[in-house]
Amino acid sequence: MRSTSTDGDAMFLTFREHVKKLLTEALGQCEYPSSDLALTVKPGYADLTSLIAFKLAPVLKLAPQEIARNVTQHLGSDELVARAEASGPYVNFFVSDDYLRRTLSAVLEEDQNYGRVDAEGVVILEHTSANPNGPLHIGHVRNSVIGDTLARCLRQAGYRVETQYYVNNMGRQIALVVWGIMNFELNGQRKSDHATADIYVKANADVEVHPTKLGEIRQLMQRFESGDRDVACLFKDAVEFCLRGINQTLKSLHVSHDRYVWESEFLDDIDGIIDELKSHGVAESDGSTHVDLSSFGIGKDLVVRRSDGTSVYATRDIAYHVWKAGRCNRMIDVLGADHKLNALQVGKVLELLSINAPEVVFFEFVSLPEGSMSTRRGHFVSADEVLEKVTEKAYDEVDKRRPTLSEQEKRAIAQAVGIGATRYDLLKVSTDKPMVFDWTEALDFERQGGPFLQYAHARASNILKKTTFDYQYEPELLTDEYEIKLIKLCAQFPAVIEDVTVNLSVSVLASYARELAEAFNQFYRFMPVLSAEPEMRSARLALVTCARVVLRNVLNCLGIEPVDSM
RNA sequence: GGGCUCGUAGCCUAGUCAGGAUAGGGCACCGGCCUCCUAAGCCGGCGGUCGAGGGUUCAAAUCCCUCCGGGUCCGCCA
User: Fold this and answer.
1) Smallest Cα–Cα separation from A128: which of A249, A301, A267?
2) What are A152's strand-pairing partners?
C-alpha cells in the first residue's frame, strides 16, 4: 500500500498548511484584512483551532463571535480538512477520513524514517564534555541524556549530526590527577574513571593540607603548555585512562559520541584569534589581553590571554567554536546552567569575529538531598551506581512477573528497562528545573515512566508476533474513538520532532511518548485485534503495526530500547 | 550586593518563549476491572488562592513592576 501523498508524510503539518490556505482564502472572501491566523491545538475541542476572531475584533469593531461565524461560512474544505465550525469566537477545524487513511499509509511506508521533516544540513552537537577526573555522576548524565536525545531527534528530522565530546585535558584539575598518579598508587582493580576519582580526591585533600605542593601542580601545567613532550604524554595517558571508563558508562546509557575533541588541539589557533580581535579594535593589552564586552551588557572584561602569555580556558573554547562553526550549519551545545555567563561571553566574542553564536541548551543542576555534588570532595552518586541498582530492581520486577523466562532474557529486559526508566526520568523534566536525586524515586518505576512506554511497545509486538499482517486492510473500518485517537497521535509525531529540533526541548518528546503509549494501552484494553472479524482484524492489525512503528521510533529518539517482551 | 533562573494540589511535574474555551499527568489515598491479544495495564473518585501583591488586556499560570522563598553565576580557574 503506497502513499499517494504529494505533500509529504508529516500529515499533521500538511493539515496545518491546508488550514492556513483555506483560512486565508476565507478571509479574502469576507474582505477581512490578513492577520495572524493564531492557530492553536487544544485537544477535546478540535484538531486545530484559530483564534483569528479575537485578533480581528478590535480592527473590525465587531464581536469575535460574529467574525468567527462569517469566516466559517466562507470556509471551504479539502481532502484533509473535512470541515470547519464556529464555536463561539473559536474557529474549529477537523481532519478528514482521508487524513486518517493517509496517516496509516505514511507510517507503514516510511517505517523507521517516519518522523522525518524537511531538515537539511550538518549539525555539530556538543554534550557531556565532563572533565576526565572521575566517573560521570547523575548530573553529567542529565547532560548526556539531553544531548543524546536531541541528537537522535535531529537525525530523525533529517539532519546529519556529529556529536562531540570536548575533552578538557589541560586544566588544573587534570594536572592534579597527573600529579596524584605520580604520588599515589592507582588501584588497578577499579574501573578506570573511579580509580581516577580516588586519586583526584586524594590529591585535592593532600594539596589542601600542604599548599606548598601547589607549585608542583602549577609547574606541570606550565610544562604542558610550553610543549614539554614527556608531560604531555603523562596528561594524555591520564585523560585517556579516565575516558575509557566514562565511555563505558556512556555506552551502557546508549549514549555515543562521533568525535572526541581535545582542548589542547586549539593552542595553535589562539594567536590568530587574538590578532583578529585586535584588528577589530576590541582587544587591549596591558600585560594581559582582554576583551571589552560592556557594549553587550557584560560589565567585566574577558581575559583572553594571561600576562604571563599563557592561554585561558575561554580562549581555547572560542577557538573550538570557531573551528566547529566552519564545519556545520547548526552548532549546538548542551551545558550546565552554571555556564550561562561563560557561554554568553563566548557567544559575544564569536559575534565580534562575525561568527554566529552557538545555540545553547542549558540544564539546571541535579543535586543530592544533602546538597550539591562534588567530584573534588568525592560527594556524588555515580552513574554506574545508579545503573547497577536500577537494573537490579528491574530484574526483580521481571523475575516476579515473568518467572518462566530464561536467565538471559530476564537480564536483557532488566537492562533495557532500568536504562529506559533512568533516561526517561531525566528527560521528562524541563531543563530549567533543578532536580534532586533521590534513591527511592529513582528505583520506583513510576506508572507513566520509561517502562510504561516500553510496555506499550511490547504489547504491540506481542500481538504482531502471533500472526502475519499482509498489508491488505480497509482503513475506513477504524472508526472507534480509541482507534481515531491513536491514529491522530501517530500523525502528530513528525510535528513533535519538528518542535523538538526547533525549540531544542526534549520534554515535549517525553510528554508525547507518554500520550502515545497511553492511547495504545487504551486501544489495547478496549479493541480486540486477533479475535476480531477478519476485515476488522486486518484493519486493527494495520493500526497496531503503525502504532508499533511510531512507538519504536519515539523510543529510539529517547534512547530507550523498544523491547518486544517484558 | 548585581546578573540569570525557578516557585503550579500532601509530594513530583506538563503547560509560560509565540496570552484565549473545563490548568494536563504521575506518586500517595479511596473504589472498580484478569474464564478476554502480558494487570509494568485499564476505568472511576479525592485533592488547585498556578509563591504574594499590584498593573496591562475584551481575556493572564502565561506579558510588565514590586516583594518573598530556592538554585546558580559574578577568577589573569577550568
Assistant:
1) A249
2) none
pTM comes to 0.96
Judged by C1' against the alpha carbon of A372, the nearest nucleotide is B71
Nucleotides on strand B with an atom closer than 7 A to protein CB?
3-7, 12-18, 20-22, 25-28, 36-43, 58-59, 70-78
If we measure between CA atoms, which residue out of A123, A165, A121 comes closest to residue A331? Answer: A123
C-alpha distances out from residue A388 to A292, A345, A385, A415, A419, Å: 49, 39, 5, 9, 10
Using alpha carbons only, give the angle A59, A64, A67 rounded to the nearest 5 degrees: 80
DSSP A102-154: HHHHHHHHHGGGTT--S--SEEEEE-----SSS--BHHHHHHHHHHHHHHHHH
Over its C-alpha atoms, chain A yields an Rg (Å, rounded) of: 28
C-beta of residue A416 within 8 angstroms of C-beta of residue A454: yes
Alpha helices in A428-477 (DSSP H): 439-443, 450-464
B5 C1': nearest CA residue: A432
Q: Are A255 and A145 in contact (CB under 8 A)?
A: yes
The answer to whether A530 CB is within 7 Å of strand B is yes
- Any strand B atom closer than 7 Å to A435 CB: yes
3-state class (DSSP) for residue A90: strand
CA atoms within 13 A on the CB side of A322: 25
Q: Does any strand B atom come closer than 7 Å to the Cβ of A37?
A: no
- The verdict on ipTM greater than 0.90 is yes
Using CA atoms, how far residue A110 sits from A49, A113, A121, A307, A553, in Å, is: 28, 5, 21, 59, 11
Q: Tell me the pLDDT tens digit for each residue of A41-78.
A: 988 899 999 999 999 999 999 999 999 999 999 999 99
